[in-house]
Amino acid sequence: MKKELGFVILVIIFLINSSLCLNENDDCTNPRQQSGKCIPVRNCQFIVSILTSSTRTPEKTEFVKNSRCGVNNGRTLVCCPTLTDSNQVSSRLAKLPGIDECGAAGIQDRIVGGEITPLGEYPWMARLGYDRGLKGFAYSCGGSIINNKHIITAAHCITDIPNTWKLKHIRLGEWFTDTDPDCQDDVCADNVVDIDVDKIILHPNYNSDGKHQQNDIALIKVKHPIKYTDWVQPICLPTTQSLKTASTENEVLYVAGWGATETVYSSKYKLHLNITEVPLSQCANSYNRHFDLSLSDSQICVGGERDRDSCKGDSGGPLMRLVNGPNLPYWYLVGIVSFGPQYCGTENIPGVYTKVSNYMNWIESNLTE
């Protein structure tokens, strides 16, 4: 154990930034904004437990690297959280899957343009089911699985609905809405799974009466744990510092869903589309000029090409990016579909998405068992 720990610490020392200069026992703040003391790594049981864990993930390793606060007589110092804070940090790290457990990438060609997805593609996609009273049941928004108890979606999918509507359950594992189970080329998926809603957590600064639609994000906790299968899996979130700060301009991004198509009606098949980000300043000018709306850096704009956009039925659904992992490529959630022009795919008016990386602290602090 000591030999293994020594080797791991040596690797960490060479990998991390050596410009930090706190002294031993100084007060500090770790990467998750928890207060602590700057002490030798060997004296911090919380960090040691991560380093010696058999389930050490890249996210946890990066957390340890970014916890370094100095060096004293050749000994690496880390910001060791207090007992209460370390329990909270450990809990948060455990509540989201590591990159080897989320964002599974298929092997299909990804040059798409509003085309039908292969069966099983984007297995984190969820549909929000509403009881509309006398009008019956309907699915009108999307979301994404982020762990085995929570779906992430847009706040307006919860608040900006008719008074007679009530969100009842989350449907998982959907592909073609007219069949159950779904089959393609002699391969059949499992039956869809409907899970009742237990709790809804809206961002406290979302204003459903405000026209700017900022902080358009919400979490839905389901009543029973989600069972992962080949057809139902979580998407990764930007938990690492590199993903939180990564620029997605000029990167290929993807949207998917069952939303309104050029024929206005919702699609019966899950569709996907590759799309590019538009600089926020350019997008903000368009919305200010056409709609007198202001945008913020907590939003992302994509699209603005004729007939290439996500539409109303995709509200709350994912904006995704495929990146290379240590072993395999994986998908992570860049944005959540928020709003756009009245007519989907309007030239020079991009769609607006909630920027997930700006809300990671809020997301992690609101994940409950």
UniProtKB/TrEMBL annotation:
It is found in: Secreted. One of its GO terms (cellular component) is extracellular region. Its EC number is 3.4.21.-. Residues 27-80 form the Clip domain. It comes from the Eukaryota. The keyword DNA damage does not apply. The keyword Hydrolase applies. The clip domain consists of 35-55 residues which are 'knitted' together usually by 3 conserved disulfide bonds forming a clip-like compact structure. Belongs to the peptidase S1 family. CLIP subfamily. This is CLIP domain-containing serine protease. It comes from Corethrella appendiculata. The lineage of its organism: Eukaryota, Metazoa, Ecdysozoa, Arthropoda, Hexapoda.
